[in-house]
Specification:
- The protein is α/β, with parallel strands linked by helices.
- The protein has 2 domains: about 160 residues, TIM Barrel, CATH 3.20.20.80; about 230 residues, no CATH class.
- Helices cover about 35% and strands about 20% of the residues.
- A 7-stranded antiparallel sheet has the order 9-10-15-14-13-11-12. Strands 2-3-4-5-6-7 form a 6-stranded mixed sheet. A two-stranded antiparallel sheet has the order 1-8.
- Helix 5 packs across helix 7, helix 7 crosses helix 8 and helix 8 runs antiparallel to helix 9.
- It is elongated, with a radius of gyration of 24 Å.
- About 40% of the residues are buried.
- The C terminus is likely disordered.
């Protein structure tokens, strides 16, 4: 039998695609190609199965394929090659960037803007042109009818059996899961030089204004003291109020260049698949410190390399004794107030919005907190005061947030 492999887990939304996911998918694909016995010269087609805009291609898809291409070059010395499956525009952009040998075009998605009026890429190998139905009743199935060009090279394939993962492979996959989640939280992955050791807190950043601690646990209990929590189902947040708050603040809070460091909760939900996010604000009485705990509980039911639910906790300890943060804090607080009132939302949403504002404003600066950056320290001290004001308002339950 001659076949060609497609690699796809979901890949149906932009948030799925980023550089860390590309590294993880490439490693899995290389392992599976080898274990299933695919011969040298096989092209694996990585799927982009949604109507991607040019902006989404540039921001998400290209960084993803950069990692895929680099990983194939590094880990398997040219035995296999990278292809791209997707709409015409996606295929062309990835080919132009030099990250794929050829493409499998999803022309059946005729209503996609990334297909309409787009020319068929010159390096097309396969083209999906029709869906046909075979059989009847319970035996009825739909299959795609494809055409292929001279660039198509399906391979003779004798299906093998994928062996059980070794303990080392299980650990590698678990660490990859954690790194993808940290990437969505905008933690610089270069600062994470540890292996997973459950039930042990590890400090991954120490600076004059911020300490960050990480821990992973197989005890995934719900925190009854959490100020805010939201469920995640099938890669999407359950709480529509949270989604409304998120859209409101990301659109109205001006963090300038820091926007690149705002946590991506949409991507985080995709990576979690199913689970729960919890946010807890912890004041340190009598100290110029303030703590924000972000706990991610990930359900293990659909994860082959986890035997039980697990939790990841990031603890941010803000130290706001830097010089002159009050004036900056007042300006930032005004942004919070403006954002809360910019959209006409039900009153019960405002508490959630304010918590989200505190989370965004606090975490947006977290990756920048390194020793020696005095201006960043002042700004961060102001952020800590903003979060403290948010907590005071929550505790007071006052209708006035100014």
């Amino acid at each position: 039998m001659k076949v060609f492999p497609i690699y796809q887990t979901t890949g149906t939304k932009a948030a799925y695609f980023h550089k860390t996911r590309g590294l993880y998918d490439a490693q899995n694909a290389i392992r599976d190609l080898s274990n299933f016995g695919f011969p040298e010269g096989t092209t694996a087609y990585f799927a982009v199965d949604f109507d991607a805009s040019e902006g989404e291609i540039a921001r998400n898809v290209i960084p993803y394929f950069t990692s895929v291409s680099n990983s194939f070059a590094k880990y398997q010395q040219g035995k296999y090659s990278v292809g791209v499956y997707g709409p015409r525009l996606v295929c062309q952009k990835v080919l132009d960037a030099g990250y794929a040998e050829n493409c499998f075009v999803s022309d059946m998605s005729s209503g996609y803007g990334s297909n309409i009026l787009q020319p068929l890429p010159a390096k097309w190998a396969y083209d999906q042109i029709q869906t046909v139905t075979l059989g009847a009743g319970e035996g009825k199935i739909e299959i795609d009818r494809d055409r292929m060009s001279g660039l198509a090279h399906p391979v003779l394939f004798d299906p093998g059996t994928l062996p059980e993962m070794t303990e080392e492979e299980i650990k590698m996959n678990q660490e990859a899961d954690v790194l993808r989640l940290l990437d969505c939280l905008r933690i610089p992955l270069g600062s994470v030089s540890f292996g997973i050791e459950f039930n042990r807190e590890i400090q991954i950043l120490e600076s004059p204004n911020l300490d960050i601690y990480f821990s992973a646990s197989l005890e995934a209990s719900v925190n009854p003291d959490a100020n805010f929590q939201v469920g995640v189902t099938n890669g999407e947040m359950d709480d529509s109020a949270f989604a409304l708050a998120w859209e409101s603040f990301t659109g109205t809070v001006d963090t300038g260049e820091m926007k690149d460091f705002i946590p991506n909760f949409e991507s985080l939900a995709v990576e979690m698949e199913d689970g729960r996010m919890e946010f807890t604000f912890v004041p340190h009485a009598g100290e110029k410190k303030f703590e924000l705990d972000v706990k991610l509980i990930i359900y293990a039911e659909e994860r082959a390399h986890w035997d039980s639910d697990f939790a990841i906790t990031m603890k941010y300890v803000f130290k706001y004794d830097g010089p002159g943060p009050e004036e900056i804090a007042e300006d930032l607080w005004e942004e919070v107030v403006n954002a809360c009132t910019f959209y006409q939302v039900p009153a019960e949403v405002k508490e959630k919005e304010l918590i989200v504002a505190a989370v965004i404003l606090a975490l947006a600066f977290a990756p920048q907190m390194v020793p020696g950056l005095q201006e960043a320290g002042v700004a961060f001290a102001a952020i800590a005061l903003v979060v403290r004001k948010a907590l005071n308002w929550l505790n007071s339950k006052d209708d006035t947030i100014a």
